[in-house]
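Late entry, written up from scratch paper. The run itself happened at the end of the previous shift, but nothing got recorded in the book at the time, so transcribing now.
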Amino acid sequence: MASNKRGMHGIWGSRWTFILAATGSAVGLGNIWKFPYITGENGGGAFVLMYLVCILVAGVPVMIAEVLLGRRGRMSPIHTMQAEAKEQQAPAVFSGIGWMGAVSGFFILSFYSVIAGWTLAYIGKMASGEFSGADADTAAASFSGLLADPWTLLGLHTLFMIMTGGVIARGVKHGLEDGVRLLMPLLFVMLIMLLGYAITTPGFVQGWNFLFSFDASKLNADSIVVALGHSFFTLSLGMGAIMTYGAYMPAEASLTRTIFTVAFLDTLVALVAGLIIFPIVFSNGLEPAAGPGLMFQTLPIAFGALPGGTLIGTAFFVLVAIAAWSSAISIAEPAVAWAVEKGVSRGRATFIVCLLAWLIGVGTVLSFNEWSEVTFLKGTFFDNLDFLTSNLMMPLGGMAIAIFVGWYMRREDAEGELNVADHRVFTVWRFMLRYLSPLAILLIFVKGLS
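Output as recorded:
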């Protein structure tokens, strides 16, 4: 039976509120920006199928484990893991899982806010008609000009951080819950509207075939590792966000059904984003494998050439900004929750966390202009933060969660919290968590270091 511990932060109003919140955490720039361009770089349909397999093998089992820990602990990841490691008599190193997740999320927030600020800039650029009839040189110059202007980037970074903090400071019920109830339905409505438009474009069939036609010859070892990595990171695992949201999950909610629903919605958003983007790209004779510049350089050209493209393009970047906003809220919450448990008021805790993340984010702002020539270890200040979190801290955190729940948590405790009627379901999940998920994450980790 699920734990009935009561936390000090509050509980989501319903299972569906948790689903919206967790989906909001998972759906972000990774779904709408990164998934389409890595699909383009790795051959389309074969990569999508591999990605879906990896979601089931690597992502979902760890996500269930992370939410299980959060609901069982009813505290921030830091205090939850300290209590669970002691209760399960696990090595003391596992008590550090919460710290690693919270610090990782804190660092990610610092640069995520900067990149999300670009989407705010592009809402204005699209709405002003800047890209009407634009060619590749114009689009590239616009993006380069934005990155070269530290003051504009700093202002956008500040605005996005204020947007994020403004929601968190209001608490679980009136901040996080009200926020996701507004943002997520709006995101889904805008996705449907843009998909409806994409269906009318001449490149829709080509875009559909690109996403769903299977050609195994286009897969290679690197593509499989990319699919593994993205399947893990798209669900916001290993950074404390999902564990924190799990702490606010109702005890009576079915954990497995809920997580599968979140994973389905997260994957659906990524696929729909591809069905929106690739038809527009193909309709304008552009390159689907344009890489990270697909959203900020290739798509503006396409929107600028379309009838009504100014409106469609503006709606698209509003969609991306909403997705980024919902994710940033979840990334900041673990550190804020820990500070509240230490006796700091939620308003003050939010201000301190967001201010410190903002200050570190200044280094990312300068990485694209004033400090672009200052490199060390893996590159610029931003490159090193990205490498530290994405290639080291998140995989290690995810692997530690899988090992802790799979090998150190007492079977009766895990099975009671999972509360599934069919013991075979629990046995399969535990096997995947013990063996398949850690091996998959280890592959991501080793590849990231190479």
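The longest helix spans residues 309-341.
(Scratch paper discarded after transcription.)
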